[in-house]
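Q: Got a minute? One more chain.
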Amino acid sequence: MKRSVLTRYRVMAYVTAVMLLILCACMVAKYGFDTGADLTFVVSQTHGVLFMIYLVFAFDLGSKAKWPFGKLLWVLVSGTIPLAAFFVERTIRAEVEPLVSDSPVAVKA
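A: Always. Here it is, folded:
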């Protein structure tokens, strides 16, 4: 597996997690203080698009690492739980990093 697969996943895990925290703050401002409705809309739409990209990259990593379905589902769902993606990303990185190689493996004829 290439390092770029893990790197794409890690970047999107952090971006998605940060956007989810920003979205939570916007929701508190919108419903708790009745302000920032327009900002909440923009942040929610942005988070939605970024979350879809995260799903694609996480699924790609999971299929290449040959994860069981339950583990893949947990990684995919972790992008919807505030702060979970930070912890799941760290665990996944530690697990997948030994499988990553920078150079392509030579195919024996």
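A: The mean pLDDT is 87.
Q: Perfect, thanks.
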